[in-house]
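User: Hey, quick favor. My workstation is busy. Could you predict this chain's structure for me?
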Amino acid sequence: MNDDSPVLELADVSVVFGTGRRRVTAVDGVGFRVAAGETLGLVGESGSGKTTTGAVALGLRRPTSGTVRLLGSPLAGRRPRAGTVQAVLQNPNGALNPRLCVADSVAEPLAAVEGGRLRTHRTAAVRILDQVGLTAAFADRLPHELSGGQRQRVSIARALITRPRFIVFDEAVSALDVSVQAQILNLVHDLQAEHGFGALFISHDLAAVRYLAHRVAVMRSGAVVELADADRFYATPQHPYSRQLLEAL
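Assistant: No problem, here it is.
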């Protein structure tokens, strides 16, 4: 980690859907901090509230109660400054326009932040593609001409091009083959060391989380039941549910 400055902080955040008998608490009093250069792994079974928490962190979902701070300032209903936070999702196809070449897809977020035509940002796009392990030869290819791992590299390049301070990785490697997963995890590790962004790594794969995370938060039924340094968590988990998850590893 580069320093202990909190890039993102959630304090007693809850998200409630519906009313009356249909009221569902998706996130229940969640609190954590993510420092610059730090990865917090967020684990738990499906329906535990991980993705909703990620949406709150991205400013895409307003919490019912609690406070979200980005770079020390409360979001309080406003969207983060464009490009400050980014996301890499499970299915890269959803982020890539099938009609845009790779370079234009990567340039798209930067054009949205700085203005100008996509071609104006081609040099920056090619430079970021090189950082994620894709040479200039990939710049004019279309998404259907890429493998799953290559498409995910393009998604990571799209996230990086705006120089974000915080990135949410939501099941970003779960759809990839095991060998490709390892390549992407190594890439994210190296890119974080180079760029210093804070990260929330949401996954049901505790082996992947173990490789990347500095700390681990375990969610169950919308609440964080354990939050610990990664080494301590994997060696001596404190909560029975954490032990249950690790027994399946």
